[in-house]
Design brief:
Layout lengths: L16 E5 L2 E4 H7 L6 H28 L2 H31 L6 H10 L10 E10 L5 H10 L2 H9 L4 E5 L6 E2 H7 L8 H4 L4 E6 L3 E11 L7 H34 L8
Antiparallel strand pairs: 1-2, 3-4, 3-5, 3-7, 6-7
Helix pairs in contact: 4-9, 5-6
Length: about 270
């Protein structure tokens, strides 16, 4: 790759220029420092060529802007850049303090209290289910045994089913967690043509078959849109909400402490 640009190489303050826009130079050494490691020679040539074109376009636009923008417009842009730079530094400092000192553990008691006091905001917008299912090819030899284990739903039978995992196309045996109906539909092809209202019925078992696969499904419980989300399902949302609230309170406390300390140490003086 370096040889490809040898014709351009000249000594320019110990750097090799690759391109120039008026009096602004792009140097080979700077481009190479940005190149991802392990690139082939062909890819490195493409990378450098693309970078030079992008750099040239940016420099040309920048120089045109400097000529054509008014001084007032350029001053406003410089102010925006300076303010953004200050905000980045301040936020980086605050993030470091938060990472070191903020307690991010929300107790179960806090979660439960918030849930009880704000149940009205946890109305479901989608159906949830507790369910189990297995899917297997119609030609499988121990179909009756699999069906018997599935219907039994004991720890022993579920353990036996898991041992047959390689013979199953797919399965879900944990009926203690709530799952979104749309997630089930996206991973179960037979539901594409299955009546949704018929599917969303609790305490029912059914078998569905297509051309090659048998599905055994047991619906343990169902919650419909508009009903209150169960606590276990709402926990991640509540945790995020409480953590965000705690973070805001912590930030306000830090800012107040910084100002009060600065006043005490006479680093900050406020004039009437």
């Amino acid at each position: 790759m370096i040889a490809s640009f040898a014709a351009c190489s000249t000594n320019h303050n110990d750097k090799t220029p690759l391109a120039k826009v008026n009096n602004v130079f792009l140097y080979k050494e700077d481009v190479l420092s940005l190149m991802p490691k392990g690139m082939s020679e062909k890819d490195s040539v493409v990378f450098v060529s693309t970078y030079i074109k992008d750099w040239a376009k940016q420099q040309l636009l920048l120089q045109k802007a400097k000529i054509n923008l008014t001084e007032e417009e350029k001053t406003k842009i410089e102010d925006l850049v300076n303010n953004y730079h200050k905000d980045l530094l301040a936020n980086k400092y605050l993030e470091a303090i938060i990472k070191q000192e903020l307690d991010t553990v929300i107790s179960r008691e806090e979660l439960e209290n918030y849930y009880k006091e704000n149940k009205e905001i946890f109305n479901l917008k989608e159906a949830l289910l507790k369910f189990r299912y297995i899917a297997f090819n119609d030609g499988i030899l121990n179909k009756k045994e699999l069906t018997s284990w599935f219907r039994d739903n004991s720890d022993k039978s579920n353990a036996a089913l898991k041992k047959q995992a390689l013979q199953l196309n797919s399965f879900h045996l944990n009926d203690t967690i709530w799952v979104r109906y749309d997630d089930i539909k996206n991973h179960s092809s037979f539901l594409g043509s299955y009546n949704k209202n018929k599917f969303l019925k609790k305490n029912r078992y059914f078998k569905e078959e297509d051309s090659v696969t048998t599905y055994l499904v047991e619906i343990k419980d169902v919650l419909l849109p508009g009903e209150t989300a169960p606590f276990s399902y709402a926990v991640p949302t509540i945790n995020s909400m409480l953590l965000h609230k705690r973070k805001l309170q912590f930030l306000r406390k830090i800012e107040e402490t910084i100002i009060n300390d600065a006043i005490k140490q006479k680093e900050l003086q406020l004039y009437d």
